[in-house]
Amino acid sequence: MPDISRRAAILGGVAASLGAAATLAGCADAKASNTGSFLVRRASSVLTMDPARGELTNADIRVDDGRITEIGTGLSAEGADVVDASGCIALPGLVDTHWHMWNSLARGFGQTSKGGFAPSMASISGLFSPEDSGLGVRLALAEAVNGGITTVHNWAHNVIGPAHAEAEFEAMHSSGVRGRFAYGYPQALGAAEPMNLTHLREFAGSLPDGLVSLGVCARGPDRSEDAVWQREWDTARSMGLPITTHMASNAEAAALGGVEKLDARGGLGPDVQLVHLTAASPADLDAIARAQSPVSISPWTELQVGYGLPPIAAMQNAGVPIGLSVDNTVLSGSADMFGVMKLTADLPGGMDAKQGVVADATVLDWATAGGARSLGLGDVAGVLAEGRPADLVLVQSDSVNTAPVYDATTLAVRAANPSNVSFVMIDGVVHKRDHRLVRVDVDVLLAEAQDAMASIRGRAGI
Ligand SMILES: [Zn+2]
């Protein structure tokens, strides 16, 4: 168990250092007030990701009480905390559409003495306590914010018991990061057994208001029996919850005909996200596009685990709504959405042996506005516009790896990395400033993560 009083003291210390602009409403849960005014001043470019607005140069962004109130030049700084954005590109916070946050403690565990990814994770997943899972989520969220990700889709596929779901949700809720918690199942659950739908219902009725909404991650037709996934689909839909499932991730999975099964039963739609589809057929992609089921790809992990090359151009041509994802840092090593964008931009050209198959602007849309739309958050995230919640990041364009700037979009997709993210705001609350996380005690977090993983490894014999 974590030392609650120690954590509260740490959070109190963080609160004291935050200043008036981002005062904590309550130290125990680290929720922050989003009242206050900010002027993000003179960004060299503002990539609004709003087709009607496009890119602005040498522009300011005014934020009041959590919302963007003005984007333009020479805006008033009256009563505002001024953030100097000179030499920076401003863009909406990045959106990750599929991430197993609990296993962030097992960074780099894709190959161990137990073998590859599957046996390595099978040797430790049952050993995670609720506190371990919550800690994994906290580590993932800190890394997300550090790298400019302000919206996450936490794919909780190791809900061993109710307390695991509660710990993961609480880690998200108290972080102040926007996202969806996708309630799942224990890794060891048999294909003939449904997830704990009784607790799902109780859980759904007990959640606080905030930036985190609820969804369901299910094993679906590829990894559970028909009667099981159909019951899980029916339950989620009766509760109005969006669903996500891994699908057609390799040839063996695709041969099960899961997309066809879903389509035949009305199991596709904007509320059903499909993950990977690395081995999807053209007919699968057409069915998915017709239903407008969003798809999440995670090129780094798909390459490392042997799923193969995501058919990005085919998905684009079929009209499938696409979002990008980290998936997990067990395989990917780090949660670098800039790296995900760069790989996503270049894979289609390599596969088709020609340049410019997918435009950089399209890739940046998938990582921002498109990703948000795919999660049903198109009205609140992924775009910088007046009246919207202030989720924004500044990326230094005057660093040795980003200057000189030819095109701000290309810089974001191809040159930048998390170390260039100097400022992050979510819902009007500052999370990173002057390259420093201001709501997380990183030293304490990393020490907790090291200790927890050492204990898990000891028990697993790795
Ligand atoms: Zn996944």
Task: Tell me what the structure shows.
This protein has helices at about 5-20, 115-120, 130-145, 160-175, 195-205, 220-225, 225-240, 250-255, 260-265, 280-290, 300-305, 310-320, 330, 335-350, 360-365, 370-375, 410-415, 440-460, and strands spanning about 25, 30, 35-45, 55-65, 65-70, 80-85, 90, 95, 150-155, 180-185, 210-220, 245, 270-275, 295, 320-325, 390-395, 420-425, 430-435, 435. It contains 18 helices and 19 strands. β18 and β19 form a beta hairpin. It has about 450 residues and is an alpha/beta fold. The model is unreliable at about 1-30 (pLDDT under 50). The longest helix is centred in the C-terminal third of the chain and has 19 residues, at about 440-460. Bound molecules: zinc ion. Zinc ion binds near residues 98, 100, 155 and 246.
Highest CATH level, the class of the largest domain: Alpha Beta
Please state the overall shape, judged from the principal axes of the Cα atoms.
globular
Give the total of beta strands: 19
Work out the count of structural domains: 2
Largest sheet: 9 strands, mixed
Distance between the termini: 23 Å
Strand content: 15-25%
Uncertain stretches: 1-30
Could you tell me the CATH topology label of the largest domain.
Answer: TIM Barrel
Per CATH, the architecture of the largest domain is: Alpha-Beta Barrel
Topology:
Blueprint: H1 4-18, E1 24-26, E2 31-32, E3 37-47, E4 55-64, E5 67-72, E6 81-84, E7 88-92, E8 94-95, H2 117-122, H3 130-146, E9 149-155, H4 162-175, E10 178-183, H5 197-204, E11 212-218, H6 220-223, H7 226-238, E12 243-247, H8 251-254, H9 258-264, E13 272-276, H10 282-291, E14 295-297, H11 299-305, H12 312-318, E15 322-324, H13 329-332, H14 337-352, H15 360-366, H16 369-374, E16 392-396, H17 408-415, E17 421-426, E18 429-433, E19 436-437, H18 442-460
Helix pairs in contact: 3-4, 3-18, 14-17, 15-17
This protein binds zinc ion.
